[in-house]
Amino acid sequence: MYGEYGVKRLGVKGYPDRGVITPHASFLALDALPKDAIKNIRELLTFPLYGEYGFYDSISFPSKRVNTQYLVLDQGMILIPIANYLKKGVIQAYFHKDPVLEKIQELLGQEDFFKN
To answer: What distances in angstroms separate CA 11 from CA 5, 25, 69, one per listed residue?
Structure first.
């Protein structure tokens, strides 16, 4: 489901339509579930969700209304996972080479993201 994270009441627009799908989510899944992500991307291409400059922002179901905006944020979240998938983790490798990010990785390793 597509929606803002954090404190919902602070969201600028909010997403009252619960059936909104954004293509970039499938691309972000390429690293973890490549076959499922590719299947999903192919399914998205059966809708009028792709234009001259790439994927549009989102599609709303069940109306199948497409938000035909191109958002730089979306395009980045599509392009980077594609590069990472095709080049076998190249983006993660860049980050892991950075000394500052090495320290952050150590801190992230100590986090328990599933605590209540």
So the answer is: 8, 20, 20
**Predicted TM-score of the model (pTM):** 0.74
Q: Would you give per-residue pLDDT tens digits along the chain (116 residues)?
A: 445 444 455 445 555 667 888 999 999 999 999 999 999 999 999 999 999 999 999 998 878 899 999 999 999 999 999 999 999 999 989 888 888 888 888 888 888 877 76
∠ CA(19), CA(28), CA(9), 5° rounding?
50
**Residue 84 parent element (H or E):** helix 72-86
Considering only CA atoms, which of 69, 67, 85 is closest in space to residue 27? 85
